[in-house]
Amino acid sequence: MGHLGHLKEQYQSLVHRLGAGPVALPEPRDSAAWGGWKEILEILYTPEEAELASKLPIRPSSLKRVAARLGTSPEEIKPRLDAMCDRGLVLDLVHPDTGEAKYLLAPPVVGFFEFSMMRAHDGIPKKRMAEALHAYTHGDPAFAEEVFGSQTVIGRTLVHETALGDEELPDVLDWERASAIIESATTHAVAICYCRHKAEHLGESCDAPKEVCLVLNGGGEFVIRHAFGRKIDKSEAMEIMAKARESGLVQIGDNVLNRPMYICNCCGCCCGQLQGINQYDLQSVTPSGFTPHSDPEICNGCSRCARACPVTAIVMAGRKMGSKRKNTLSPVVDAERCIGCGVCADTCVRGAMKMERDPVRPTVPVNSVERSLRMSLERGRLAHLLFDEGSGRGSRFLNRVILALNALPVVQKALAMEQVKSRFVRAMLARVADPTGGEEPDV
């Protein structure tokens, strides 16, 4: 873009490194957005930290491997990594049985953007950070297109279970239910909503509750360990979800089937994901797989559903009623824009709006490895995922990626092969597909 030379070399290297991950921090075109982008980096990282971060892995790696990558000893690098974890710049994932920590560079989202505003008081200047984030994410489409411009996105809508009729409930799978996700989680934490906290410092916050972001499983352990939120029990998590539904908030979960790490309770005015739809018309969350339908015999055209919709997917249209001279109003749902949250159905006091199952369920990655694979593939970064980390961490991670690759549809698998022209990958794909093992790869 021509601006990159104005950054210190350490920040240039960090931006380049983030560009190898599934979610990058692209340079914006707009000058004010560029200033916010630069300030975000300078607020969060010292030049020395930026240099260290630019050399970190983008997938979890042991302390020993990280130290080897940095050309230092584990004893020397661990305090620096731990200090950066305390600020959300590095993530440490601790094995529940062995206690071994694996480290990786935190992405912008879900990552250091959220962590920068998850605490009310720390060393980060909140108002300045909020202004920089707003300038970068709202002043230019570069970041929105990076995060939301491809088929696989970070979050997925969880339909309000209270908006489903009794006949729908047996058909709702556990991964589609917020209650089942909370019930099965091993760790529960709650944190301040990054989006509404940011909006508060901009003087634009709505009246929705702020301490409603649930962080689960390994994500919850990280949040508790580094004081980004507080530990709660399962019952309090359920209460938070119920109150969020009563407040008309959209429940957006981690876009994976197994062991999701968060459920956010989002409003259309402050939420960064929903603003991807409202400001940039991008399908920024995977829809729930349910769509609202109104019963014209019950609906009285009050428009509560249209006013409550967080992504303006409902409009009221005139409808002729028998011999009456005046038209009545009825809701019309834009199925392409609707995310299937169920807020409209819960808002309808007459029970005229119901959520009905879509003919085809949404495609949701099985786990974080498959999601990273799909995001990297769609963004043209598959080689970074395979070889930047695969070569450094041995066969276990690489095998998981190859298995996920082999499960892709034919067209996507062909695209992957085009991105990574490697005899090794081709041989491994053929070997996984062949239950006999086939010949050893010639590498």
State the share of residues found in helices, binned by percent.
40-55%
Strand fraction band? 5-15%
Mean pLDDT: 89
Rg from alpha-carbon coordinates? 23 Å
Output the number of helix runs. 20
Strand order of the largest sheet: 7-5-6-9-8-4-10
Shape: globular
Strand count, sense and closure of the main sheet?
A: 7 strands, mixed
Termini separation: 39 Å
What is the number of domains? 4
Structural class: alpha+beta
Low-confidence stretches: 389-394, 434-443
Please tag this protein with its features:
14% strand, single chain, Arc Repressor Mutant, subunit A, alpha+beta, 14 strands, Alpha-Beta Plaits, 4 domains, 443 residues, 7-stranded mixed beta sheet
Description:
With 443 residues, the chain is α+β, with helices and mostly antiparallel strands. It folds into 4 domains: 4-109 and 121-140, Orthogonal Bundle (Arc Repressor Mutant, subunit A), CATH 1.10.10; 147-286, no CATH class; 290-357, Alpha-Beta Plaits; 368-433, no CATH class. The chain has helices spanning 9-18, 31-44, 47-53, 63-70, 74-85, 108-116, 126-138, 142-148, 178-184, 194-201, 217-225, 234-246, 272-280, 304-308, 343-347, 368-378, 382-393, 395-406, 410-419, 423-433; strands spanning 61-62, 90-94, 101-105, 155-158, 188-191, 213-216, 230-231, 250-254, 262-266, 285-286, 290-294, 314-319, 328-333, 353-357. The chain has a 7-stranded mixed sheet with strand order 7-5-6-9-8-4-10. Helix 2 crosses helix 7 (126-138) and helix 4 crosses helix 5. The protein is globular.
